[in-house]
Design goal:
The chain has 416 residues and is of the alpha+beta class. Helices cover 17% and strands 27% of the residues. The chain is built from nine helices and 27 strands. The longest helix has 16 residues, at 72-87. The radius of gyration is 22 Å and the shape is globular.
């Protein structure tokens, strides 16, 4: 597919993240309150203010949940109407007055997160992490090649790009420590992920094909992780407080429709999946991803480049598996892909892997990093590259703030 031309010239510029082919959905505030918007070129369109041809109630609240719940027919109708309004010069005068420069708006959470589940579905990541902690011979858990592994996270901790993230406190115990202690996390990390957003809910089991049709769109996702808290707490039930600090998402929902031309197959399986998990067609996307790290006061450096096509399980497979217990899925459920890592050292999606558990620090803008330091700014980038156009997600950014002062009631009691 080639570039679809808009009468808004900035949308046709080389390298533009938001051409007419994209039309991602977000929520913006230009100074008069939050509004639902669609990014086009260097502007955002106030969707509720134009003749969108749909029930105005869908746009009454500054959140995309109502549109998502309305289902695929409404999604398709809205996308087609927006393409007409922004692609046909006959609508230029009527629509132009409802465009606002992106440089002059604040971007908000694009939807209300109902539930949040995070997966562990990149083979390279799982192999690297398993090798670090258990050795190469025991890297993958016995079930990993058969089942999408995940855990239920905190929807309340999901924040939009640009939100600061404070270093967490937690219970820590190193391998040489006689007893645990309460202290700020010293091994704070990022995880480069893609988040799938459930549009229409479900009751009971759904197939992979039906799950794919339920997904409204995707966001970049940084699952901030406290590795030292996690190391002490994770047995036997897995991550808990180590993953509850924050999860940052990009501000624009890139729709599944916009990504459709970039579908690719999941990798060859060395172990057959059970029939319910087998894909009816390509379920991943060719989306280039990168991670930028800027130490406080220093320039940003790209520390990783990878691709979403590296995943072993697709979002549709993850969603299908999520429903097998009869677990209802809701509009606004967010599914994290799990850290996306490639085969090469420069394609690892977490500092845990990049520094090999802290044993091999990397150099970033002249400073050493095994894990994140206070003042570090992390930015995730992602885009699918078409024939003369790109489908961008916008930046997914967060800055690490120091831990809060320690409350008196958490301090160690004197033994003297």
């Amino acid at each position: 597919m080639s570039l679809k031309k808009s009468w808004l010239e900035s949308a046709n510029a080389p390298g533009c993240e938001f051409p007419l082919n994209n039309l991602p959905y977000g929520v913006f505030d230009a100074g008069a309150g939050a509004r639902m918007g669609v990014a086009i070129g260097d502007c955002v369109l106030d969707v509720a203010a134009v003749d969108h041809g749909l029930d105005a109630a869908l746009f009454a609240d500054p959140s995309w949940n109502a549109v998502m719940a309305a289902g695929p027919e409404v999604w398709a109708a809205l996308r087609a109407r927006l393409m007409e309004l922004l692609g046909n010069d006959a609508h230029r005068d009527a629509v132009s007055e409802h465009l606002v420069a992106l440089s002059g708006v604040a971007l908000k959470m694009p939807f209300a997160v109902s539930e949040y589940t995070d997966f562990y579905a990149s083979r390279h990541h799982a192999t690297n992490v398993g090798t670090i902690f258990r050795g190469a011979e025991n890297a993958l858990p016995p079930n990993w090649l058969s089942i999408p592994i995940g855990y239920n996270g905190r929807a309340s901790s999901v924040v939009v790009s640009g939100s600061d993230v404070r270093r967490p406190w937690g219970q820590l115990k190193g391998p040489q420590d006689d007893a645990p202690r309460f202290a700020p996390c010293a091994r704070f990390d990022l995880e480069l992920e893609l988040g799938a957003i459930v549009g229409t809910g479900s009751e009971g089991m759904v197939s992979v094909a039906d799950a794919d049709a339920m997904i409204f769109g995707y966001v970049l996702l940084n699952d901030w992780s406290a590795r030292d808290i996690q190391a002490w707490e994770y047995q036997p039930l897995g991550p808990f407080q180590a993953k509850a600090t924050a999860t940052t998402i990009s501000p624009w929902i890139v729709t599944a429709a916009a990504l459709a031309p970039f579908r690719v197959d999941t990798p060859a399986r060395e172990r057959d999946l059970l029939p319910y998990l087998r894909e009816p067609g390509p379920m991943l996307y060719d989306i280039s991803l990168s991670v930028g790290l800027a130490p406080e006061g220093a320039d940003e450096q790209i520390i990783s480049r990878t691709n979403y096509s590296e995943m072993y399980y697709s979002a549709a497979q993850q969603l299908c598996h999520h429903t097998t217990s009869g677990c209802p899925m809701r509009t606004g459920d967010l599914l994290g892909s799990g850290t996306i890592s490639g085969a090469d050292q420069g394609a690892r999606g977490s500092l845990l892997e990049m520094s090999w558990g802290g044993k091999e620090p990397i150099t970033v803008s002249g400073t050493q990093r095994s894990f994140l330091e206070d003042g570090d700014t992390l930015t995730l980038y992602g885009a699918a590259e078409g024939d003369g156009y790109r489908i961008g997600f916008g930046a997914c950014t967060g800055t690490v703030l120091p831990a809060t002062p320690q409350p008196e009631w958490t301090k160690q009691e004197s033994t003297t």
